[in-house]
Amino acid sequence: MSVRNLKKGDEVVVISGKNKSRRGKIQRVLPDIEAVIVEGINLAKKHAKPTQNNPQGGVIDKSLPLRTSKVMVVCSGCNQPTRLRRERAVDGGVVRICRNCGKTLD
User: Fold this and answer.
1) How many other C-beta atoms lie within 10 A of the C-beta of residue 89?
2) Cα distances (Å, whole numbers) of residue 23 to 8, 30, 50, 70
3) What is the pLDDT of residues 50-94, one digit of tens each?
4) φ, ψ at 31 (rounded to 5°)
5) Domains along the chain?
6) Could you read off the pLDDT of 5-26 as tens digits, one per residue?
7) Gap between the Cα atoms of 14 and 101, Å rounded
8) Radius of gyration of the chain (CA)
9) Which of the 8 DSSP states describes residue 104?
């Protein structure tokens, strides 16, 4: 899946790797490395020193990026992983459309 098809807040499903078939929302899109950070998926433990923001310190979970080729957008209409089609909108913008049911995702 191309980075231009993914947006922050989209629900995605992981289609390959150890987290296969897990769902989550995109927290951040990283177009320069063609990756996304998905909430609750691909977590790593990080040991943090005490700071003013985190006076306790300790071990925290950190979300690591996933390649965009390993995720697929879930359509809100048909609740299925889908590929997207892009079409021109009436106002001149571009809308993303589900290839399964034809519903717009924007």
Assistant:
1) 11
2) 14, 19, 32, 12
3) 999 989 999 999 999 999 999 999 999 899 999 999 999 888 889
4) -70, -25
5) 3-51+58-74 (2.30.30.30), 82-106 (no CATH)
6) 899 999 999 999 888 999 999 9
7) 21
8) 17
9) B
Give CA 80 to chain center in angstroms. 15
Task: Report residue 17 CA to chain centroid gap.
Answer: 15
Give this prediction's pTM.
Answer: 0.84
Which residue is it, tokens 């993914």? Answer: 6
Report CA-CA distances (Å) from 89 to 92, 95, 97.
5, 6, 11
Contact between 28 and 54 (Cβ < 8 Å): no
DSSP H stretches of helix in the chain: none
Q: Across-strand partners of 94?
A: 88
